[in-house]
Write a structure and sequence with these properties.
Layout: E1 2-7, H1 33-42, E2 47-52, E3 68-71, H2 79-88, E4 144-151, E5 155-157, E6 161-170, E7 176-185, E8 197-206, E9 211-219, E10 225-226, E11 232-234, E12 237-244, E13 249-259, E14 263-264, E15 275-277
Amino acid sequence: MVLLAVGDRAGMFGGGTSGEGCDVPDVSLPGYQPELVEAILRTGQRTVLVSVSGRPYALGQYLGRTAALVQAFFLGEEGGAALAGVLSGRINPSGKLPVWIPRRPGGQPYTYLAPPLGENGEGVSNLDPTPALPFGHGLSYTSFRHENLQVSAAKADTAGTVDVSVFVANDGTRDGDEVVQLYASDPVACVTRPVTQLIGFARIHLTAGQSTQVRFSVHTDRLSFTGPDMKRIVEPGEMIFRIGTAGATYAGPLSVQLAGPTRAVVGERVMDTPFTIR
């Protein structure tokens, strides 16, 4: 087994490979690290690749060729002990990616909030921009099942609230934490909307074999957006909810129809999505 650490040297304005003023023309691993990784992989040894970096690098070419990929980013002073705990199995990891991991060096670590033409589509481009690993992705030493997505009503007022619930089960043999992610999509709007948007999440602890229901309370402020006149609004129409990551669906989708007039969101708005665990 080979434990191979790659990544960045922190610095500023060219004094490192990552940091303020340290930009790059593409997101290949810096220096001769790609050659080093390939040389190690050619030995045939099972390899765990650990990226200790200040930015997401294009690691798609190593998927399926390594025993595991660990994205550690830049660690704090206790990071080494934490990383050792994860690699040894003493700690069951539960982290989720806050960015996309690019598949190719030319891929930019842009926000997952892409419009339809920003994602892969037949006839749009000859290149597939799908990331190697999507926003919200993260593995564990156990496995979780998400099912039976439900909404409290098929119709809600543009000034109301709708509850979205899902059952989550730990199907593995180890206790672990799961971050349940609720996404919403707005298929038709007066402006171009992201394909999907994270509107709520719940971190839960489940022992091996345990299951529970997570219920999100979604105020329609969480579905608002800036309209063509630069004012924030909630529009009537279909909203689609699902549980998963930015690139995968674990439960759903389910549709809710927002009814009523277009509502202007003035002043402070609801910025969170409360949840309960049953």
